[in-house]
Structure to design on (159 residues):
């Protein structure tokens, strides 16, 4: 009877060893494949950086940060408000001085747009894009020497 137990025990140990070896082999193959993908992605990124003829610092214009705006939305009951922080991307360094001089006008133009919006108007990505375009048009109408090329929302909270 002890021979039968010994043979069964050896069989169980062999099956466990084979299972463990197979599992380790599969994990090793998966890790190797992932490492190869990461290396090729890093090489592609390096190649893209080398291929680009425009320096990285020229891709983004000067950034002018505005203070946070908090406004009530135009929803019925007036229970919702919008807290938004905006950065303006300028087309040139010289425009920054004009924006500083016209800052009260810029803030006023934004503050006349935001309270007219309802939650449904700005809750979707399409609505946020429309809001951004409307603000760009209004702000660029104030500027004489250059233009704002983009508006970035750093904070966009509706409560």
């Amino acid at each position: 009877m002890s021979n039968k137990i010994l043979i069964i025990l050896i069989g169980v140990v062999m099956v466990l060893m084979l299972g463990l070896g197979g599992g380790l082999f599969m994990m090793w193959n998966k890790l190797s494949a992932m490492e190869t993908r990461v290396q090729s992605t890093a090489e592609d990124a390096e190649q893209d950086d080398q291929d680009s003829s425009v320096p990285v610092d020229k891709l983004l214009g000067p950034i002018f940060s505005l203070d946070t705006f908090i406004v009530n939305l135009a929803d019925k009951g007036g229970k919702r408000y919008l807290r938004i922080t905006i950065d303006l991307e300028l087309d040139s360094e010289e425009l920054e001085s004009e924006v500083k001089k016209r800052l009260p006008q810029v803030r006023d133009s934004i503050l006349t747009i935001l309270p007219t919006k309802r939650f449904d108007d700005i809750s979707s990505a399409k609505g946020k894009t429309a809001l951004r375009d409307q603000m760009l048009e209004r702000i660029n109408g104030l500027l004489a020497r250059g233009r704002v090329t983009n508006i970035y929302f750093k904070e966009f909270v509706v409560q």
User: Anything to note?
Assistant: The helical segments are 2-51, 56-59, 95-101, 103-113, 119-122, 125-142. The chain has two domains: 2-53, 58-158. The chain has six helices and four strands.
